Amino acid sequence: MKLIDLIIDEHISVKEAIKKLDDTARKILIVTSGMKLKGTVTDGDIRRWILKNGDLQSDVAFIMNATPKFVREKDREKAKLILREKMIEALPVINEKDEVIDIIFWNDNFEHKLNHYNKLDNMVVIMAGGKGTRLEPYTKIIPKPLIPIGDQTIIERIINRFTEYGCEKFYLTVNYKKSMIKAYFNELEEKKYEVNYVEEEKPLGTAGSLSLLEGQLKDTFFVSNCDILIDGNYSEMLLHHKENKNKITMITSLKQYAIPYGVVEINDSSEVRQLVEKPEYDLLVNTGMYILEPETLADIPKDTFFHITELINLYIKKGEKIGVYPVSDNAWLDMGQMKEMEHMLERLGVNK
User: Fold this and answer.
1) Which residue intervals of the chain bear CATH 3.10.580.10?
2) CATH number, domain 124-347, options 3.90.550.10, 3.30.980.10, 3.30.390.10, 3.40.50.720
3) pTM to 2 decimals?
């Protein structure tokens, strides 16, 4: 990728910046004027703007960091130290004229992920008990968690994302074809994590099975569906959850939906009030990944089919704090349906 691909003007919209961040997948854009450094825009800046319900049509100047960290060309050997000390993903390099000539990235300098903790030792619960009816006929033969995405099953890819941040203990809620899932993990050699099982005697939904873990999970834990991959900083998600004192944090994705028709709006007298041609809507969508506090387990009805969304709505009615952590559209990979699975294969660079 060329440096120019990451350079933007301060007058482009936040929405355009989001698209460029998605396209470049580098989590930072450099705002310049005649190549002179004016600021930076990161996925974190975008996230904070979304959480404030900011207008996505606003100029990116409203959200950029106007006093970003940088390193002079003559001091670029100090970049690695600055990245580590400031815990930042990227660092612009500028010359004596204050012009941006390069960007130094964390991922190019460190083998481990940017982790706000020494490592995450939080439990991870993966919902692996469903029948995966939307992926039939594959799931008539093998359970959805074991569907291969390239040379790895989808559930291994999920686990590996968490282990990159230090998570080593996983609970899999199992029901449909559970013997195949257990046999698969039992035969894996040299896995560097521990897998335990929560066996449902009957389908209990995405939250009902969690009730079986009451008393076993004593700290904040992650929950993930078994058909998604989130390309995000899990350590930062946990930090956000803790700092905001959320009961549950939903990992959400910013999705853009375009209506391919002219939308007619009418008034109470059935007269046309407005005609909007092919409107676009930006919505926060639930990805199927969550962070929960352990006391939530006591609020899930026992031996009852109960979804995690029902638990969230219950807490909303009670006035409990439910938060969100937005990721970009491209950071959420879903294989819940055939079309989405093909998209996941393409995004991960896997040959079918």
Assistant:
1) 3-108
2) 3.90.550.10
3) 0.87
Chain centroid to Cα 92, Å, comes to 25
Per-residue pLDDT tens for 200-249? 888 898 899 999 999 899 999 999 999 899 999 999 999 999 999 999 99
Parallel, antiparallel, or unpaired: how do β-strands 248-258 and 332-334 relate? unpaired
| 343 φψ region: left (φ > 0), alpha (ψ -120 to 50), beta (else) | alpha
Q: In angstroms, rounded to a whole number, what is the distance separating the alpha carbons of residues 121 and 140? A: 35
Is the backbone of residue 196 left (phi > 0), alpha (psi -120 to 50) or beta? beta
Nearest of 34, 30, 36 to residue 12 by alpha carbon: 30
Residue 287, both tokens: 């990805």
Specify the residue for token string 């989001």.
18
Q: Write down the architecture of domain 3-108 according to CATH.
A: Roll (3.10)
